[in-house]
Amino acid sequence: MTNYITPLNSLLFFFVKEIGSDMAEFQVKVENVVAFASLGKEIQLNKLVADVENTEYEPEQFPGLVYRTQEPRAAALIFSSGKIVCTGAKSIDMAKLAMSKVVDRIRKTGIRLPTKFDIKVENIVASSKIKAQLNLEEIAFALENAEYEPEQFPGLVYRISEPRVAFLLFSSGKIICTGAHTIADIHTALGRLKERLEGIGIKVTPIADDKLKSVEKK
Question: If we measure between CA atoms, which residue out of 98, 155, 160, 86 comes closest to residue 123?
Fold first, then answer.
């Protein structure tokens, strides 16, 4: 059988190849996933703190109830409006599983909640590393949208708009990325960070750290 390559297929192949090369280049470890759900039902937090284990509720200090799950390990902030924020999971799947378990546990107290609800990923915090000793002062001077105040914090903050994320760069070559909604966004952003750094004369060589684990690109 003859394989026909149309101009569109050729363009798509080039696009996937270029994006894929950035995605495969960096090793990424997910440090935290923040997920959000709105159930559209009021939740009686006083009832919840009385009936559910591993909960904390001090309304005079904070309007939400804190509920901690063990498997997966995460913490949920539950509000009387029916909004829930789940944080601490190490993957998107684990964050969604934790959220589902939180809702199931609330439901077991007799509070009627919808069986179907959307879970949105609000933020992914991930780390990576490059083989470089970074001069943060020079980078802050050379790049727009970079902030470096070493007397307050040892890392340089660098923001990009597409995808909208913020990086923390450390002189050791460690990179923290925050604000992404997908793993693919993280890899795309790292690729663009590499372009910006190499554009000011810094060679960027991603390295494998024993503590870093590549994750599936979703």
Answer: 86
